[in-house]
Amino acid sequence: MMRQEKIQLIRNALVKKMGELCSRANNTICKMKNAEDRFPDPFDEATVESIKFVEFACRDRERELILDIKEMIMRIDSGLFGICDHCGRVIHINRLLAEPMSKLCVVCQKEREMHKKRKSAPLAVRDISYHYV
Ligand SMILES: [Zn+2]
C-alpha cells in the first residue's frame, strides 16, 4: 500500500474518532440536564454542582482532543501531515499508524524527552565546552 493510501486510512480513523467524541460530548450535556431534573432538592445542589464540575472538565479535555484531531485532518488535507514539526523530515508511516497524533519524528521526540528530563539538572560541562576549543 502506498504511503498516501495509508494516510487516507488514518484520516478515516480520525474522522470516525472525532464523530465518536462529538456524540459523547453531546451525551454529556444530556446527562447534565437529567441530573438537574433528578435533584430538585436544594440540599442536593452541591452534588449537582460537583457533577457539573467533573462533566465540564471532561468536556474541556474532549473538546481539546476534538480540536487536535481536527488539526490533524487539516494537516492531511493540506499535505502537511507526517512531516516533523521540528526538523521537517518525513515521519515514518509505521510511527504515524501507531501514533496518528505525532507531530515529531522519532529523533526529535527523543531529543525533546531528553531535554525535559535534563531541564532541572545543571548544564553539563561537556555541552558548553566547545565554545572554548
Ligand atoms: Zn524531526
Can you describe what's shown?
The protein has 133 residues and is mainly alpha-helical. The N and C termini lie far apart (51 Å). It is 70% helix and 0% strand. It has a single domain, classed as DksA, coiled-coil domain (Four Helix Bundle (Hemerythrin (Met), subunit A)). The chain contains 5 helices and no strands. The longest helix has 36 residues, at 3-38. Mean pLDDT is 80; it is low at 129-133. Zinc ion is lined by residues 84, 86-87, 89, 104-105, 107-108.
Sketch the major β-sheet: none
For the record, what is the CATH homologous superfamily label?
A: DksA, coiled-coil domain
The structural class is mainly alpha
User: Taking Cα atoms only, what radius of gyration do you get, to the nearest Å?
Assistant: 22 Å
Range of strand content = under 5%
How many DSSP E strands?
Answer: 0
Overall domain count: 1
CATH architecture: Up-down Bundle
| Apparent shape | flat
Specify the CATH class: Mainly Alpha
Write down the CATH topology: Four Helix Bundle (Hemerythrin (Met), subunit A)
The run of helices and strands is HHHHH
Q: Uncertain segments of ≥5 residues (pLDDT<50)?
A: 129-133
Instruction: Kindly report how far apart the N and C termini lie.
Output: 51 Å
Q: What's the overall average pLDDT, rounded?
A: 80
Proportion in helices? 55-70%
